[in-house]
Records
---
Amino acid sequence: MADARAVDRTRSLLRPDTPSTLRADGVLDVRRPENGPTESRAAQRLMRFGPLATIYERAWRPLFRLWMGVSGPTVDVERTFAVRDLGLVDDGTRVVLDVACGPGNFTRFLAESLADAGRRDALVVGLDASEPMLARAARDTARTVRTDSTGSTDLADHVAYVLGDARELPFEDGSVDAVCCYAALYLVPEPMRVFAELVRVLRPGGRLAVMTTVRRGPAVVADAMATAVRPSGLTVFGADDFTDVLHRAGFEAVEQRIHGAAQFVTGRKR
């Protein structure tokens, strides 16, 4: 179960009117019953399929790498990108939000990176809409103990998981130092609304990092591919969709890297 301090710190970031219930599995439930069910196409239903949480990192995530092409970065390289793009090593990042965190593999890696950088007061919050994914994330995190030159640290002391809707993040404006969303925006309903929420909760000077799909090749072919996968719930984004939003929001150091049919987008909020 998440450490009480991590849960309390997470609750301090929430909007005052946000309901929050700590479940038996250690996940903080902030869903609003009045919002009703979310859109549920094939891709979204798959993310709520319990057994997928067990094989996610070994089977599902490698499928996205095939989308990027044989020259695309491995999951380990993606993690290196995230640490750099989020400024986890070279600035005063203390609170990191991992949106659509799935079973928490990436969330734990970010927490470990902060611990390695000496950020003993760091907090990493993973948010997802899938109960099976978060239940797996909480179990695995509770079993993770880090040992370094300063001794042993339970990773659960620095990680909390939140069950909620990324289209309406429960956090205050400007409440987190860094926010990431890797390999998820192409799956969620209303992805540009989610992206706007990532921008909203980021503090001035904070960093954002996203990895998702991108249209490549001749326009006719790219448009046909995007149309073909849309009924399944998958979205293939234009090359300027996210960078344009960041530029309009006044972000600095906006960067986009494209690997095959995937894009990495990062920037710093002014």
---
Amino acid sequence: MSDEATHFPKDDADYKKLEKLVAKIQQDLAPQSKVSHNVRLKGKSGAQRQIDVLVEDRIGQYDIRIVLDCKDYKTPVDIKDVEECAGLFEDVSAQRGVIVCPAGFTKNAKARAQQLQIDLYSPIDTDPHKWQARINIPAICDFRQARMSFGWEMSAPAPFALREDFFVSAPISDAETGEELGTTLSIASAEWDAGRYPTAPGNHDRIPIIDRPLQMDNGYGRLVPVTLSVGLIISQHLFYGQFPILRLSGFHDRIGDGIITNAFEFGLLSLEEIHNWKQLSSEAEAPVKPVLRMIGLYGWSDDDPESKPVVAEE
């Protein structure tokens, strides 16, 4: 840059703390750029202008200068402040000007800022300070639950006696290695819990229970090759609520109404808490469009009386 920035002495007043917070957020958003707090620049007018936060970068042969002006007001910024800041941005040859105010901006200020191509932000930061934000975002938890049926086929020159409870009593093994894999139900439940079966709501028929050749006892002490399949009836359970954000640092775009950040960390929710959310029959019933959508599976348990499979014999 042609004009050197001169730093002011540090001040711990609230407005200076706001400037430091804005500088920290901007540095997080643009770690490769030079971000300075509380500096002077000589304007085209010849006057030394105080700059709250200055962002400098170089793209190819071009020097880029962005100026952020901070307003620790108790009321929203009005059109007069926007026009005053526009003069500052123009005087120091800023390619982009930004006004940051935790209290927000009036309707007229937003309209004028759009005309002048000035961005309007409020800080969003979950660290403890005067402007600390506690953030929850609208979310939908989409849980999928399965009911299972089982089918078997055997083609071998041998008799076969199939027990009624074969899916929990008859061991299944790998036909090539002889490794015992478990029972029909334990194999299928493990595959479901691992997400290896279809999860789309509706019916899914004749899915190979596992991707390998199988064998089982024919009821007379002889291992014979079998083909086992599972049928699934998948139901969908939708829950709508507010998901806590544990850590986030960024800006709230008061014109575009989005959040500008490069990372955030979720809090934790138990299944019991989610079950207390509003249950929906479809996402269209959500009172506010969800920002986050999570899909999960209800795990299968042999001990759950509601999870007993329906047996289909072929």
